[in-house]
Specification:
With 146 residues, this protein is an all-alpha fold. Helices cover 67% and strands 0% of the residues. The chain is elongated and about 60 Å long.
Length: 146
């Protein structure tokens, strides 16, 4: 196989997750049991990739949330790669934004970073258990201050 254009398209973790999940389902439904060694290697790669990617925020995303996120990102002057990083990693702090956006200190003000964080956290779903834990800790912290 020859790669014609390595930068033809960038795939988000969600798209890869969806593709591999669909392939896995198709394989189950076809019921083939005998596989070549090449097929076994591909299965291993699929398994390891799904195992890793299932631990990222993409497993809570949907095509609608991805579309909504990209529309909301039009207001921010970011490259495609930076938008993809934000989509894949769902940053929740300014430090994470600085790691994902090249030269963010020069390109973005503190207000723009806060706006970006607000957009990311309001549109992209996070881990429900983690969010529940964070809200419980915040409520407990408020109770300690009273």
């Amino acid at each position: 196989m020859e790669v014609k254009d390595a930068n033809a398209a960038l795939l988000s973790n969600f798209e890869v997750y969806q593709l591999l999940t669909d392939l896995k389902q198709q394989r189950k439904e076809s019921g083939k049991t005998k596989q070549s060694s090449g097929q076994q290697n591909l299965n291993t790669i699929m398994y390891e990739t799904l195992k890793y990617i299932s631990k990222t925020p993409c497993r809570y995303q949907s095509p609608e949330t991805v579309r909504e996120f990209l529309v909301a990102m039009k207001d921010h002057k970011l490259t495609k790669a930076e938008k993809l990083q934000l989509l894949n990693h769902r940053p929740v702090s300014a430090v994470e934004i600085q790691l994902m956006v090249e030269e963010s200190e020069e390109r973005l003000t503190e207000e723009q970073i806060e706006s970006l964080l607000q957009t990311v956290t309001s549109i992209l779903p996070g881990d429900p258990e983690e969010q529940h834990r964070d809200s419980a800790v915040a409520a407990e912290h408020k109770g300690d201050q009273a």
